[in-house]
Structure formats: structure tokens, C-alpha cells
Amino acid sequence: MFAALEALTDRDPGWRDVAAASLGDLLRGTALDTDTARLVVGRLVSLAVNEPITRVRESALNAVSEAVNHHSLHLDLVEPLAAAMPTMEPELLGHAIYILGATHAPKALPMVESFLEHPDRDVREEACLAAAEITASNPARERPEHPDPAPRQPP
Fold first, then answer.
1. CA dist., res. 87 & res. 17, Å (int)
2. Which of 86, 79, 41 is nearest to 61 (CA)?
3. pTM flag (> 0.85)
4. Which whole-number Å values give the CA distances from 36 to 30, 40, 70, 130, 154, in the listed order?
5. Are 40 and 21 in contact (CB under 8 A)?
6. Which secondary-structure segment (H or E) carries 97?
7. Where residue 152 falls among pLDDT bands split at 50, 70, 90?
8. What is the pLDDT of residues 77-116, one digit of tens each?
9. Which residues, in sequence order, are CB contacts of 57 under 8 Å at separation 6+?
10. Beta-carbon neighbour count of residue 9 at 10 Å?
């Protein structure tokens, strides 16, 4: 795991891509405790925010998506994605929106709702699902008109 974390900063984007995918494999299972998973996710979020190569960003976001399926992650850990979302291609946006929605944090709702009118249909759909997931997890909030969320898989 430590070699993969170190490879996230390698000069070669191919190594960064492989490292992110390897960390995603670790996050998919139960090999990591919650604190270690949060450390890994923090590094992957940083890579997704700062990486110029799309395929590496996508691998980092895929790995974080694996983490949110197996670990409870707080919005503070993944919130830096929101600042990078305007620079993301639609397929990357879907991952980022999924991740924000999976936190179930009410503060993430405006972050995902801002994409409900996005030009790309898949992005709008993911934003709608994420908003529904957040509101379903926080019943005290007024619910917008979104369908009830079904069990979701990463985009």
C-alpha cells in the first residue's frame, strides 16, 4: 500500500494511474481499517483535484467510489472535489457527484444540485440520484422533487 501511495506522485502518469487503481482494489475489500481508508482517500482526492491527465483522474475517482461503498466517509474528506468539478469532463463529474451524494451530508446537497441543469443528460441524472440519496438520508430536510434512490453503483 505504501508503494502505491508513493507512486501517486510519480512523474509517469502511467504509474499514477496504476497506483490509483491498486488503491481502489484495496478500498474495495476489507483490507483497510477506516482510518487507513480515510488516509488513502485523502491522497486520492488530492490526485483527482490536481491531476492534469484525465485517465489518472478517473482512476482516482473510481478508487474513491470504491471507498464510499465500504467505508463511511465524511464530506470534509471529499469536499475538495467540488472545487475541481468545473474542470471535469462529464464522465468524471458523474463519479464526483456520486461520491458527494454517498456522504449523505446535507451540506453536499447544493454541490450536487448545481448540476441538475447540466447540459449532459448523464450528469443531470447522477445529480438527481445523489440529491435524492442525500435527502432520503436526512428526512428532516424538505425533500425536493426527486425519485426515491434505489441502491446505487458507481457511475
1. 19
2. 41
3. yes
4. 11, 6, 13, 26, 21
5. no
6. helix 90-102
7. low
8. 999 999 999 989 999 999 999 999 999 999 999 999 999 9
9. 47, 48, 51, 88, 92
10. 12
